[in-house]
Task: structure prediction
Amino acid sequence: MTQNLTQFLTGAKNKNFATKTGTATHTILQRVIIDTDYVIGEKDIVNAIKQHPNLLPFFSKTAQTEAPIAGIIHGHFISRRIDRMLINHDAKTIDFIDYKTDTNKNTFIEKYTKQLQEYAELLCSAYPNYKIKGYILWLQDWSLDKII
Result:
């Protein structure tokens, strides 16, 4: 029994650490803007993002950060915040990313896929004629995986 309690407490500590780390990371990334000679953000983070040109549009001045979205899915009201989102009204496209700090990309991929599907469904309701693409940005290596 003691071992089970110890495992439970260790798991709770790890979850609390992961939550605090994720929250702190989101706060740091919210402030990053990279647009040619206009740059805001922590130098190491900005440099890491610059190493991946496919990420730069998501950190431009026109990208929305912590974009609120809400609606009804399967009879339930859902309210979410999208980490970064680009809306192109001329092309009728929306691209969005969700940050993940996991070191193993496969651990929660089903949960994350469901989360991004919810975002896409909410966006489709709000923007019915737009093409929606959703990505996970894995912060441990700055890779971008298309999910939607």
